[in-house]
Amino acid sequence: MRSDQWTLRFLLPCVCAAGMTHAGTLYEYDGFNYPSGSSLFLQNGGSRWSGAWGTPGGLDATIASTTLADGDLAVSGGAVSTSGFQPPNQGASVATWDRFWGTPLGADNTTAYFSFLFRPDPGFGFYGGLNFGNVFVGLSGNQAFYGLEGPTNDVNLSSVPVVVGQTVLFVLRADFLPGNDRLSLYLNPAPGQSEPAVPDVLKTDLDVGTVDSVTINNYGGFTTDEIRIGSSFDAVTPVPEPAYGVGVAFAFAVALRMRARARA
Question: In this predicted structure, what is the pLDDT of residue 77?
Fold first, then answer.
C-alpha cells in the first residue's frame, strides 16, 4: 500500500472520531426555531416531544427574532418571549405554556438533567421560570435571587441575582430516590466542561414524582430558550462540534505532503 493511501485510511477515521461526542442521551429539545413574531401556540418543532405547545390561557408567548446565548452553548433559531406585566384589571397577567414528552421520568434510582436559557426583560413580572413536574426553577415571587421552589412555597435560593437583560443558563440535576429526591441546580455552568462539583442550590425536601412535561410559567416580561432534557450534564450543555470539512481537508493536505516527500 502506498504511504499516502495508508495515511488517508488512518487519518479519516480519526477525523470522524474527533467530531463525535459521547455525551449521554438527549431526550427532548426545543430551540424555538419558529417564524419570528408567531405565537407559540401549537408550535411543534424541536425533537422527541409527544405533542405541540399548548396553554390553558393567559398571556400570549411569541417567537423572538434572535436567540438567547450563553458562552459556547450550542443554540439554534429564535427564543420565546411573553409580554410585560399587566395589572389584573387590564387582562390576563400569567403565562403558562405546557409541552409533554412521550416517556415519563422519575423512576427511583434514576437521574435526569434539565437545562434552559432564561432572561428577565424590562418590565418583567414578579416571578418567572419553568416547572418540571412539581418543582419550579427560576425567579420565585418577590425574590432577588434565582432558586428552586416546591408546591408549598418552600424556596431554596442561590446567590445569583436576578438582573434585567442578563441571560442565565439553568441546569437542574434530578436524582430520583425513594422518598424525597435530590435536586442540584447549577447556574451559568460552563458548557463543554465537566459537571460542577458543588451546586448553586441543593434541595432535598421534595418528592418530584413522575415528570412528563415542562411548563413555561411566568408573570410576563421574560424570554426563554434552548430547553433540553437528557441523561447527563453533557447532553444538556452541548457545544458546537468542529466542522467535519476542515478535518477532511487537513487529512488530505497531510497525505499530499507525504506523497510529495516520497517522490522527492
Answer: 85
